[in-house]
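Standup notes
- DV: blocked on the single-chain target, sequence here:
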Amino acid sequence: MGTMKEIRHPIRMSSFGKRDMRAQFAALPWRRRNGKIEVLLVTTRDTGRWVIPKGWPMNGKTPAEVAATEAFEEAGVIGVPADQCLGIFTYTKILEDGELPVVAVVYPVEVTRLLSDWDEKPCRKRKWVALKKAAKTVSDIELAELLSDPALQKRLI
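- DV (later): unblocked, structure below
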């Protein structure tokens, strides 16, 4: 494990109370290809931004199991989730009735199979990219920082 990083992007909760913060569990689908690590990114349904699969807690499932379920639903991933968190990032989820601050906890999911047809295929794209390119492709600043962390690749192997 590395050392603690200074928080560079504080959570903005000026119009929210402490209890308004929500948690999601995110999957970082990954594979080894030609000796290098690649991660699978998906687009959001609404804006088409590149992100990683994530979703709300599910009754009876561990956070890593939720992450694997989201990877299956959003990207057609069948894989093996690990229980060790890779990191967190925060973002603001835009809802019909306003905004909601969210902290996303990221779990690795080693991809064993990728389906050619999956639930959300009609509304999402997916692509494999190297970690460095993934960090440049995603729009969430904190997720980009997590993906560009030099220790991340070692933690996936």
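- Follow-up: The CA atoms of residues 68 and 81 lie 6 Å apart.
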